Amino acid sequence: MYLKKRIALKDGICIVPKDWIVVYADDPEDCISAHAVISRNEIKFGIPRFVALSALPYGECVSDDLMIKIYEACSRKYPRFDELFHQQVNLPTGEHYTQELADVWWSAPCFDIIRIPEYLDPDLWKPGQPEYIPPCGAVIYRTK
Description:
By secondary structure, the chain is of the alpha+beta class. The chain is 22% helix and 27% strand. The radius of gyration is 17 Å and the shape is globular.
């Protein structure tokens, strides 16, 4: 089991693995949601995981503006972030597709932002279903 850290939110607490790097896309006192910033091939490239906290209401999609703020916050906190982020490769499609280019894409980092779930979110914890286990145990508990 992962060692955990607790991060205060405006209306609750976010629990994530202890080795995740905490970044803020908004003022800490306004943060009510959390997202994991992950990358394909993170072990190969030595990319840490991040938890990005923001004022985005739970369940809303991350806008392009917020995505930029999150990636900029990761860059400020982790010096190699920009270097690794710029190693991403677009997936070749259509007439530009070759297996060689697809292999290059598959071998490169590919960053994504994933919502950390609220405990007992009805879309994830369903009655009669096996217990939902959040990725890496990362979860938000609301206290207000």
